[in-house]
Amino acid sequence: MGFNFRYPSIILSYLLIFSGSPSLFSHATDTLTHGQSISDGQTLRSAGDIFELGFFSPGSSKYRYVGIWYQSISTQSVVWVANREAPLKNSSGNFTIGSDGNLLVLDGGGSIIWSSNLSAASNISTAQLLDSGDLVLRSGSGTVLWESFHDPTDTFLPGMKISLDTKTGKRQIFTSWRSPDDPSAGNYSLGLDPLGSAQVFMWEGTVPRWRSGQWNGQVFTGTTMRSLYIYGFKLVNDLNQGIMYFTFTQFNSSLLRFVLQWNGVENCTILVEGTREWDTVWAEPTNECEIYGKCGIYGMCNDGDTPICSCLKGFEPSSSEEWSKGNWSGGCVRRTLLDCRLNRSGDRFFRVAGVKLPDRSAWASTVLNEAACETACLNNCSCKAYSFDSGMGCMIWVHDLIDIYQYPEGDNDLYVKLAGSELGLMDECRHEGMLPGGQEIAVKRLSRSSGQGLEEFKNEVVLIAKLQHRNLVRLLGYCIQGEEKILIYEYMPNGSLDAFLFRPAEQASLDWRTRFKIIEGIARGLLYLHRDSRLRIVHRDLKASNILLDEDMNPKISDFGMARIFGGDQNQANTNRVVGTLGYMSPEYAMEGFFSVKSDVYSFGILVLEIVTGRRNNSFHRVAIVE
Ligand SMILES: *[C@@H]1O[C@H](CO)[C@@H](O)[C@H](O)[C@H]1NC(C)=O
Ligand SMILES: *[C@@H]1O[C@H](CO)[C@@H](O)[C@H](O)[C@H]1NC(C)=O
Ligand SMILES: *[C@@H]1O[C@H](CO)[C@@H](O)[C@H](O)[C@H]1NC(C)=O
Ligand SMILES: *[C@@H]1O[C@H](CO)[C@@H](O)[C@H](O)[C@H]1NC(C)=O
Ligand SMILES: *[C@@H]1O[C@H](CO)[C@@H](O)[C@H](O)[C@H]1NC(C)=O
Ligand SMILES: *[C@@H]1O[C@H](CO)[C@@H](O)[C@H](O)[C@H]1NC(C)=O
Ligand SMILES: *[C@@H]1O[C@H](CO)[C@@H](O)[C@H](O)[C@H]1NC(C)=O
Ligand SMILES: *[C@@H]1O[C@H](CO)[C@@H](O)[C@H](O)[C@H]1NC(C)=O
Ligand SMILES: *[C@@H]1O[C@H](CO)[C@@H](O)[C@H](O)[C@H]1NC(C)=O
Ligand SMILES: *[C@@H]1O[C@H](CO)[C@@H](O)[C@H](O)[C@H]1NC(C)=O
Ligand SMILES: CC(=O)N[C@H]1CO[C@H](CO)[C@@H](O)[C@@H]1O
Ligand SMILES: CC(=O)N[C@H]1CO[C@H](CO)[C@@H](O)[C@@H]1O
């Protein structure tokens, strides 16, 4: 965006002639008091010289607007506009606090063209521009009457809220500019899901264009927004006040902003120190699969495939003619009706790995483990799919599945309910949970649609077959049949460590002796991987849910799908594909892709903290998730 700051000579000479008079604005201040005004060419400046408020013309426009921008940046970046719908036609406007205490933009004739519109303002109010970029109007007693952060334009700054009043349904909405030359409300808006799910939506008009995916307490699961070291979001759900909002904090001292651009892209940029240029941290939607419902209902988008849309297994295009033309909007229909009898239903689940989970999930708050989640979905005839995740718990879908995107960073698995006959191939490859000798086993199933499936499958088989240690889970066998790939492990009756650590009901059963034993066991397993085995192995995804517990609560490291073997004198490697779990990843790995045995040690450190405290390493406290 280019900005022309026009100082017509008439204004300049006015300033020169009267510069000797006792004007408040001979040097910039951050506060406007009752009765004072600033005219075109004058500005308010926040105390730390970060933001500036004044008159500007965007791009090639000749109109004048009152707005707030970053004071120090030469390429002017406006974060808020007052009179976006009512431009000044010339530079004789004023910004002032009116006699009733409202903030006003006046044109040269003295008519009000914009107002903060408070019915009960104060006749001695003051307005102050803060270093956060917020313009705050206070009454004489200091009560906040109005603030620009509650009346946003297109820019989401640290400390702002994106909110939903759960009682009235009123939302705080961000609206794009119409064009780089025109700040009036454009076609795109951004706000919380009016249905109350913890998701951010973008609309084009009233049609959903993009959504963030479900919030898991740490991140939005459907985005590639992985910069946890630059900023962190927080969800607050205040049931008393009936308000729910997201806000974010930046961890990095550089200036940071999210802009809903005029072209319908939400763009997070950071000011690169030294260069004074904005650098993109994250922007969506930037590929077709990120567009809401691109492939219609029961369709799945994968921009690595040609064509990008396919129907979920067991479904076929509703109109193959439209699909062949690249019009996927009609979506897909089920091939074989579900059986859906209670208990002995012939229905089964098909795993679709690594996806942005579909929209309109329902949260089964009382279901606490994956098996119960599967049962809950199987026993509810309206249930189309389920997903279980330690952060989000059990989610089921009773509406048609829409907006499924399979992408490399996607780390949620969706289990889609299908008639058993649709899974014919798999039947031959199924084990009944017990080997012929009566030994109990655990089965891990990978599927073709997981995208990374075969590579990781081979990796895991080859690796684990070479490894033997009491603190590593044992592989008993595997099966490849058609598109099915199955791993058979020894059975771990006590499940995974995260279930014990983070569930209030189970926490009590972990005494200090047991916790110590678990830490020691993990350390032994890790030492074996790093030093004592014939190979040097970096696990790359060490976390509580990958530590399994046997009947005596001995820990065993599992899930070698992401592991890498290092050569004899190799100490470090780099990858473009950062895999693993946020919160456990070392900064140099998460940001630069560098990994080494040290990355595992970092994850181990986080794990020890979690085992000792019984708390997740959430930088933010999650108040609640509503659905
Ligand atoms: C500026 O415009 C206002 C109305 O839009 C008009 O009343 C005023 O005379 C104009 N001033 C100049 C200097 O053109
Ligand atoms: C705008 O402000 C200037 C300086 O405070 C004042 O002289 C002028 O009368 C104001 N104009 C209007 C229309 O209020
Ligand atoms: C102020 O209120 C009036 C009347 O309710 C409305 O027409 C106008 O758009 C409002 N202005 C702003 C800036 O909200
Ligand atoms: C503000 O209003 C109060 C009550 O209406 C009045 O007593 C007071 O004089 C007013 N102050 C100013 C500065 O106008
Ligand atoms: C903030 O993050 C940017 C982008 O990763 C980086 O270039 C910059 O050095 C960081 N600044 C600080 C103070 O950490
Ligand atoms: C906004 O919508 C109008 C009407 O549908 C369309 O003509 C215009 O191109 C759209 N603008 C953008 C930036 O998409
Ligand atoms: C995001 O904004 C930056 C700075 O304005 C710009 O250079 C970049 O092209 C934008 N990214 C997208 C995807 O629009
Ligand atoms: C796309 O297909 C749907 C039905 O599947 C149809 O209703 C719609 O009109 C088609 N759109 C275009 C642009 O052809
Ligand atoms: C079958 O399901 C019903 C209803 O959920 C339940 O009451 C019953 O115990 C189940 N029977 C068996 C054998 O699981
Ligand atoms: C199925 O689950 C949905 C969502 O939790 C619920 O509203 C519905 O009552 C359930 N149906 C049955 C038959 O349990
Ligand atoms: C703490 C805990 O739940 N321990 C259980 C681990 O598994 C064995 C065998 O199933 C149970 O007997 C323990 O109670
Ligand atoms: C990896 C990670 O997210 N570590 C964080 C754990 O929590 C502490 C305290 O909140 C942070 O300082 C770490 O950065």
TrEMBL record:
<dbReference type="GO" id="GO:0005524">
    <property type="term" value="F:ATP binding"/>
</dbReference>
<keyword id="KW-0812">Transmembrane</keyword>
<keyword id="KW-0245">EGF-like domain</keyword>
<comment type="similarity">
    <text>In the C-terminal section; belongs to the protein kinase superfamily. Ser/Thr protein kinase family.</text>
</comment>
<keyword id="KW-0067">ATP-binding</keyword>
<dbReference type="InterPro" id="IPR011009">
    <property type="entry name" value="Kinase-like_dom_sf"/>
</dbReference>
<keyword id="KW-0472">Membrane</keyword>
<keyword id="KW-0808">Transferase</keyword>
<feature type="domain" description="EGF-like">
    <location>
        <begin position="285"/>
        <end position="321"/>
    </location>
</feature>
<keyword id="KW-0732">Signal</keyword>
<keyword id="KW-0430">Lectin</keyword>
<dbReference type="Pfam" id="PF08276">
    <property type="entry name" value="PAN_2"/>
</dbReference>
<dbReference type="InterPro" id="IPR000742">
    <property type="entry name" value="EGF"/>
</dbReference>
<dbReference type="GO" id="GO:0031625">
    <property type="term" value="F:ubiquitin protein ligase binding"/>
</dbReference>
<dbReference type="InterPro" id="IPR000719">
    <property type="entry name" value="Prot_kinase_dom"/>
</dbReference>
<dbReference type="Pfam" id="PF07714">
    <property type="entry name" value="PK_Tyr_Ser-Thr"/>
</dbReference>
<dbReference type="GO" id="GO:0004674">
    <property type="term" value="F:protein serine/threonine kinase activity"/>
</dbReference>
<dbReference type="InterPro" id="IPR000858">
    <property type="entry name" value="S_locus_glycoprot_dom"/>
</dbReference>
<dbReference type="Pfam" id="PF01453">
    <property type="entry name" value="B_lectin"/>
</dbReference>
<dbReference type="GO" id="GO:0002229">
    <property type="term" value="P:defense response to oomycetes"/>
</dbReference>
<keyword id="KW-0547">Nucleotide-binding</keyword>
<keyword id="KW-1003">Cell membrane</keyword>
<feature type="domain" description="Protein kinase">
    <location>
        <begin position="412"/>
        <end position="627"/>
    </location>
</feature>
<keyword id="KW-1133">Transmembrane helix</keyword>
<comment type="similarity">
    <text>In the N-terminal section; belongs to the leguminous lectin family.</text>
</comment>
<keyword id="KW-0325">Glycoprotein</keyword>
<dbReference type="InterPro" id="IPR036426">
    <property type="entry name" value="Bulb-type_lectin_dom_sf"/>
</dbReference>
<keyword id="KW-0675">Receptor</keyword>
<dbReference type="InterPro" id="IPR008271">
    <property type="entry name" value="Ser/Thr_kinase_AS"/>
</dbReference>
<feature type="domain" description="Apple">
    <location>
        <begin position="340"/>
        <end position="419"/>
    </location>
</feature>
<feature type="domain" description="Bulb-type lectin">
    <location>
        <begin position="29"/>
        <end position="150"/>
    </location>
</feature>
<dbReference type="InterPro" id="IPR001480">
    <property type="entry name" value="Bulb-type_lectin_dom"/>
</dbReference>
<keyword id="KW-0418">Kinase</keyword>
<dbReference type="InterPro" id="IPR001245">
    <property type="entry name" value="Ser-Thr/Tyr_kinase_cat_dom"/>
</dbReference>
<protein>
    <recommendedName>
        <fullName>non-specific serine/threonine protein kinase</fullName>
        <ecNumber>2.7.11.1</ecNumber>
    </recommendedName>
</protein>
<dbReference type="GO" id="GO:0030246">
    <property type="term" value="F:carbohydrate binding"/>
</dbReference>
<feature type="signal peptide">
    <location>
        <begin position="1"/>
        <end position="26"/>
    </location>
</feature>
<dbReference type="GO" id="GO:0005886">
    <property type="term" value="C:plasma membrane"/>
</dbReference>
<dbReference type="InterPro" id="IPR003609">
    <property type="entry name" value="Pan_app"/>
</dbReference>
<keyword id="KW-1015">Disulfide bond</keyword>
<dbReference type="Pfam" id="PF00954">
    <property type="entry name" value="S_locus_glycop"/>
</dbReference>
<dbReference type="GO" id="GO:0048544">
    <property type="term" value="P:recognition of pollen"/>
</dbReference>
